[in-house]
Design goal:
It is a single chain. The protein has 521 residues and is mainly alpha-helical. The protein has 22 helices and 5 strands. It is 65% helix and 5% strand. It is globular.
């Protein structure tokens, strides 16, 4: 006969799987943005094109270490499978003859699976820390979270970091709650190494392992075999997933130094007004990326758990707090850097909801029957949970709808090929249609990110210039922060002829505003 607790465990697990399935369906809708002609996300190409290069040339050295290479190699393995499928089933002759967007879609689907797996891992953490109901509430909180959703179907590294870091923390939780067993130490180190192999900030996922070890080990045995093996697993796993960090050390060191300098000096349009970004990150996370009410639940959960078991609270918060303090210490501000924090925000929120449920059940027990008391308690907490996630769910669904609309970059690309004279010299900034990939009729000069501000003299040799609001708006909307750049764009707008503008209406057309100018002579 199944015990009542076993029934609750089984029911919560089934409901958590249902939540993860619904989350997968929501995220899967997003993988098709830009399909079929263009890859729209600015960061996907860094991994996808290099993974394609690996399988085309057979050269495992990516010669690019701004990110570690775990995801790049996973994509390369996946692309080999896609290419094999196309050869055997569809008769495609080779990788070069396949539409490149097929590989983007495949990589995005893999990321969706990783993101969905993180939701279930979050449930497992809640179940192990407090109760299956806490885990179920946590999974429900993370499933529609906008910051997590919006990064869960793009071929980048942050969802991967969230998965491996969550698994590393789960193993650290088990060290504390289930006994200091060797395999928990090793697995925590392996998962931390995989997190580091996804993104360099993943190194911070070893912090919970250290805290859990200190919590369960006597002072005279701190440096025991389990702990040493767990720590050694981190660099070993990292080197296995990013081997050219050792084999091509100079390139690796140069890339890491570049990223450190980049984050220290700033990124136009994505930086705080001071030398640090703690407050902007916190504000954007609470108001936009995760939501006000879910954030309040997180804070309440942190307080409750800290009082109940401060060691467990330190284990759970060791990684997200370290990550927040690390990225917040830089001037550059990219919200995607906090994607790996979201599972722990949801986890603490789920813990508070379970605590509230327990209190309500006790409070109504003397006023109603046991059955109606439980129904009332579950109903009230369920309503609070639904209200908490509703805003984020609406925002995430709206975002997926918008990015799946026909894009201004596609519309402008088609217009250019039909209306601009062949042989024209076209300069284009980033976030504009890659004309050179569709046709050889034009001499295209790629100006890069906000190229007009860096190469203003290059315009004189062009016939047309294509600009994107994603570039120029960051300056024009903040002229007090970027006076030179704003003036350069405004002067260019005034002195050259706007021949066509594509403005998104969020109903029939999405994407940035694209402007096409004829250069004055």
């Amino acid at each position: 006969m199944i015990e009542p607790q076993q029934r609750i465990d089984r029911l919560c697990r089934l409901l958590a799987l249902a939540v993860a399935t619904a989350a997968f369906a929501l995220r899967f809708k997003g993988v098709w943005f830009g399909y079929p002609p263009l890859a729209m996300h600015p960061d996907e190409g860094y991994l996808v094109y290099r993974a394609l290069r690996i399988i085309q040339l057979g050269d495992l050295n990516p010669r690019f270490f701004n990110y570690p290479t775990l995801n790049l190699y996973l994509f390369a393995i996946l692309f080999e499978g896609v290419a094999l499928w196309n050869r055997l089933i569809l008769g495609s002759p080779n990788v070069a003859g396949m539409p490149v967007m097929d590989f983007f879609i495949a990589a995005r689907i893999l990321v969706v699976f990783m993101s969905t797996a993180t939701i279930y891992v979050t449930y497992e953490m809640g179940r192990r820390v407090i109760h299956p109901v806490a885990g179920l509430a946590a999974a429900t909180l993370i499933a529609p979270a906008f910051l997590h959703v919006s990064n869960s179907f793009v071929a980048t590294v942050d969802s991967s970091l969230a998965l491996w870091s969550s698994l590393a923390v789960l193993m650290s939780v088990l060290i504390y709650a289930d006994g200091a067993r060797r395999h928990y130490y090793v697995l925590s180190g392996v998962f931390a190494g995989l997190a580091l192999g996804s993104k360099y900030t993943g190194l911070l996922s070893v912090v919970p392992l250290i805290i859990a070890h200190l919590a369960v080990t006597k002072r005279n045995a701190l440096l025991n075999k389990n702990f040493v093996l767990g720590l050694l697993a981190v660099p070993i796993t990292f080197v296995l997933t990013t081997p050219y960090a050792v084999l091509d050390y100079e390139s690796f060191r140069a890339s890491v130094s570049f990223e450190q300098a980049h984050y220290s000096t700033g990124h136009a349009g994505a930086e705080s007004s001071t030398g640090t970004s703690f407050l902007p990150y916190a504000k954007l996370l609470a108001l936009d990326g995760y939501g006000v009410l879910p954030t309040l639940l997180f804070l309440g959960g942190v307080i409750w758990l800290s009082v109940k078991d401060y060691r467990m609270a330190l284990i759970l918060l060791g990684f997200p707090l370290s990550l927040f303090l690390f990225v917040g210490g830089y001037k550059v501000l990219f919200m995607r850097n906090l994607v790996a924090i979201v599972p722990f925000l949801a986890l603490c929120g789920g813990i508070l909801l379970y605590a509230l449920l327990s209190w309500l059940k006790n409070w109504v027990s003397g006023r109603l029957s046991t059955l109606w008391g439980s129904v009332t308690a579950y109903g009230l907490v369920g309503i609070l949970l639904c209200v908490s996630v509703s805003g984020q769910l609406v925002r995430s669904c709206r975002y997926i709808h918008l990015i799946n609309l026909p894009d201004t970059r596609v519309a402008s690309l088609l217009w250019i090929t039909k209306n601009l004279p062949p042989g024209s010299r076209i300069g284009r900034e980033h976030y504009t249609p890659p004309v050179e990939k569709l046709t050889d009729d034009y001499e295209v000069v790629y100006l890069g990110y906000y190229g007009l501000t860096r190469f203003p003299q290059s315009v004189a040799h062009l016939d047309y210039v294509v600009l994107s609001s994603t570039d120029y708006d960051r300056f024009i909307s903040s002229p007090e922060d970027y006076p030179r750049e704003a003036e350069l764009y405004q002067t260019f707008f005034a002195e050259n002829q706007l021949v066509k503008e594509f403005v998104p209406d969020s109903v029939t057309l999405g994407g940035p505003t694209i402007r096409i100018y004829r250069v004055a002579r």
